[in-house]
Hints:
Elements: H1 24-34, H2 37-50, H3 54-60, H4 62-71, H5 83-109, H6 112-131, H7 136-164, H8 170-195, H9 201-207, H10 210-221, H11 227-232, H12 236-247, H13 254-269, H14 273-276, H15 283-297, H16 301-314, H17 319-347, H18 349-375, H19 387-403, H20 406-417, H21 423-452, H22 456-474, H23 487-491, H24 497-500
Pfam families: Sugar_tr (PF00083)
Subcellular location: Membrane
Domain Major facilitator superfamily (MFS) profile: 29-479
Amino acid sequence: MAVALEIGDANNLDGNNNSGKITLSVLITCIVAASGGLIFGYDIGISGGVTTMPSFLETFFPSVAKQAAEAKNTNMYCMYDSHALTLFTSSLYIAGLVASPVASRLIATTGRKNVMMLGGCIFFAGAALNGLAANVLMLILGRLMLGFGVGFNNQATPVYLSEVAPPKWRGAFSTGFQFFNGIGVLSANCINFFVAKHSWGWRLSLGLASVPAAIMTIGALCILDTPSSLVERGKLVEARQSLIKIRGNKSNVDDELADLVNSSELAKAAHEPLKTIFERRNRPHLVMAIAIPFFQQFTGIGVVAFYTPVVFSSVGSGQDSALTAAIVLGAVNLGSILVSTVVVDRYGRRLLFIIGGIQMFICQVALSILLYMATGAAGTEKIPKGYDLLLLVFMCIYAAGFGWSWNPLTVLIPSEIFPMRIRATGVSINIAVAFSATFVLSQFFLTMLCHLKHSLFLFYGCWIAVMTVFVVVFLPETRGIPLEKMDEVWMKHWYWRRFVGGQL
Length: 504
């Protein structure tokens, strides 16, 4: 992240010289807050690896273990086709979906910091329950608790980061959440690899999710709430003190505080934010809150991240090779997020979206062709030696494209485009759509893999093409724009200005 602080120049509509100043306080605060990404990333990484561990399957899903053994000589794509098994992964997103509107209310009334702490505590309890699970009911109950924790955290942390970071470097700071998410994924993949051969390995993998939860919760105890949140709750003295601390200059915070107070008054005038967001002037924000997370999940990255070990096992790679592939993909994803951190505030959001979309589309088509050549139309042929390496290469290029575009930007854009009057509600809708789409895709991915086989990657490729065109046509550039001035972005857009014009 530090590299990004030294490069580039961003647009700044208000001319406030605080927009580009980075203090030690804001740096530490944002790093601590961004560490909330650890819990979600760890869960993403751990789920797919655990579901390929024989001891885990034999304990909770013995029918799937038997099915996997039998499918090796019939249809490898159907080895793990089980709705009960996918429910283990997807149940988290149902809980996250339920938690999202609750979190939206809580971050407005109790603050961003407190919601982050609450999410961490619930996630910690869910991790402990999963590690000690003796039956499927305990396993699913633990997953639901993890979902509530993730739902609260994913709601509060991006908003926190966007409100604390200087406008000039908001992109770099906000991608920190996804960077820690990537650390969580990579850590989980490494743990899966080292414990997979032990009968108790799955317990350690699942139980260690309590570690990132503890890190995030303790960290949240040590940071201030955001000035926006304090103003929203009428704590103007504390808000000014928070601004002074994060901006590092007592004399230059009054204008920013006045903007926050004005935005807060507008927010209070909107007594029903859920109703307000459906007003015509907020149409652009609502469309982005729905379209961006929907498109992100239909890149296929969610299920690829969850089921990388499953995919490689399905096409004939051994468990060690499958888990190694997951580690490599996790490392590539983490590195690509760093690239995004460096360039997002220099070149803007739209360019990264477009480049990443083209890159992912090409790789999805290539993966489909490669799997067809390697496993045959019926999926009964074991993948020849060398093809699995080529498969991994294309998946790495695909993961890199996602890592520096749709991965961090799907969190960044919704957290920065909403005015204060509907910010919590807008982010809540964004997260709810993301959880809904993730639930559907993760629940039915293994069935789709079984029936569509190699064509599944073409399915995702078509969606990537659609969403890239959507970005080109409808997404305005938001880099360097202060949150309080974001409405001006829509006023200048060729299409959206008809909705917001004259209604600010």
